[in-house]
Design a protein that fits this description.
There is one protein chain. By secondary structure, the protein is of the alpha/beta class. It has one domain (7-208, 291-370): Rossmann fold, CATH 3.40.50.1820. It contains ten helices and nine strands. The protein has a nine-stranded mixed sheet, with helices on both faces. A hairpin with a 5-residue loop joins strand 2 (44-54) and strand 3 (60-71). Helix 4 packs antiparallel against helix 8 (283-291) and helix 5 packs across helix 7 (263-280). The longest helix has 18 residues, at 263-280. The protein is globular and about 60 Å long.
């Protein structure tokens, strides 16, 4: 496995907006939040090529490309174990660099902050089917292998171990889809990490309303005559349905009403959102992204998680509503687990609260301290 030459990016990293086809698109930084300035950091960006990658579906690719952005450098102890690696996983439709934004990296990666890049080696990969990693829109379209979360985690593990020489993680954390994958990481590789922090997720199979809104998007695209079996020459109209649905579930009702207080405002806001999505998204990519959660079901194996785990959700999350009571019930099966539900306030952003570090950084601080190895 050869690591493709990495490109060093100099200067300050500007905050970027995740692709619009994402239910997990982070809320914009606004004056209603505690101001944070973007930290001037110099990341390394690169690609790791995995030869002859086999998917759980039985399909394979001669080469799977996993793109990543990394901050800092790995540090090994006397036994050769990397002790400062942090894996940060993005949400559905997002990409690693989408988390390089004032309210996330700007609040966590700077000098003296909780994940100071001078002390930690922080890796933000693009999941399979996302960002600059291998995806349907690269050319295979609907012939691209059908991937799931287990495939994405396998690729992440290969990136860390074979590509970047990381044999242990100080912390694995993720937002939404990345949060769900964080639960699975703890089950699949229980001795690999010191701590886990899943954000905006619950440890149960995708079901109920959470499955239906995803299936609505999948069905809208697949049953659209203009989709043409994935061989369209222009984005099919069903992509609009996908964009509208992700806007609907991505924040809380009060913020949506404030942004669109009249009928005309609502039409204007969603039309703008859809237009941005058409510039950034691809229908095949979106359909695959939405379907990738089909194999997510950490419930049966929660007892396998060894590392301290802090699960953080927000009370106004429409995708993982606290009324379900799943998180509070299942966390007791995690040996060193803690569940936190952030109360609704004028600072929360519904599901998008996962990217606003000021809302939950105190719990990250607590987790890091409680999971620190004795000197």
């Amino acid at each position: 496995m050869a690591l493709v030459a990495a490109l060093a990016l100099a200067g300050q990293v500007a905050a970027q907006t995740a692709p619009a086809g994402a239910a997990t698109r982070a809320a914009p930084h606004t004056s209603s939040q505690t101001p944070r300035s973007e930290v001037a950091l110099t990341p390394v960006e690169g690609d790791f090529a995995i030869k002859d990658f086999h998917f759980t579906s039985g399909e394979s690719l001669p080469e799977l490309r996993i793109h990543y952005v990394a901050f800092g450098k790995p540090k090994k102890d006397a036994k050769g174990v990397v002790r400062n690696a942090v894996l940060v996983l993005h949400g559905t439709g997002g990409y690693g660099r989408g988390l390089v934004r004032p309210e996330f990296s700007g609040a966590l990666f700077g000098p003296g902050q909780l994940l100071d890049a001078n002390q930690y080696f922080i890796v933000l990969p693009d999941g399979i089917g996302h960002g600059k990693s291998s995806k349907p829109s690269d050319g295979l379209r609907a012939k691209f292998p059908h991937y799931g979360y287990f495939d994405m985690i396998q690729a992440q593990y290969r990136l860390l171990t074979d590509g970047l020489g990381v044999n242990h993680a100080r912390l694995i954390m993720g937002t939404s889809m990345g949060g769900m994958q964080t639960w699975l990481w703890g089950e699949l590789h229980p001795d690999f990490m010191d701590a886990l922090m899943p954000l905006a997720s619950i440890p149960m199979q995708i079901s109920g309303r959470n499955r239906v809104w995803r299936k609505l998007i999948i069905d809208a695209i697949r049953n659209d005559p203009a989709w043409d079996g994935g061989n369209y020459t222009r984005q099919p109209p069903s992509l609009r349905t996908a964009e509208e649905m992700t806007w609907l579930v991505g924040s809380n009702p009060v913020r949506r009403m404030n942004a669109a207080p009249t009928l005309a405002d609502a039409d204007k806001v969603i039309d703008k959102y859809v237009a941005q999505g058409y510039e950034l998204d691809d229908a095949n990519d979106v359909m695959y992204q939405m379907d990738s959660s089909h194999d997510y079901d950490p419930g049966p194996n929660l007892e396998k998680i060894k590392a301290p785990l802090y699960a953080v959700n927000s009370a106004d999350d429409l995708i993982n509503p606290p009324e379900l009571g799943v998180l509070e019930k299942e966390i007791h099966r995690v040996a060193h687990g803690k569940a936190v539900v952030i109360p609704y306030s004028d600072k929360t952003w519904g599901h998008g609260s996962h990217t606003i570090a000021v809302l939950w950084e105190q719990y990250l601080d607590e987790l890091l301290k409680s999971s620190a190895s004795p000197e």
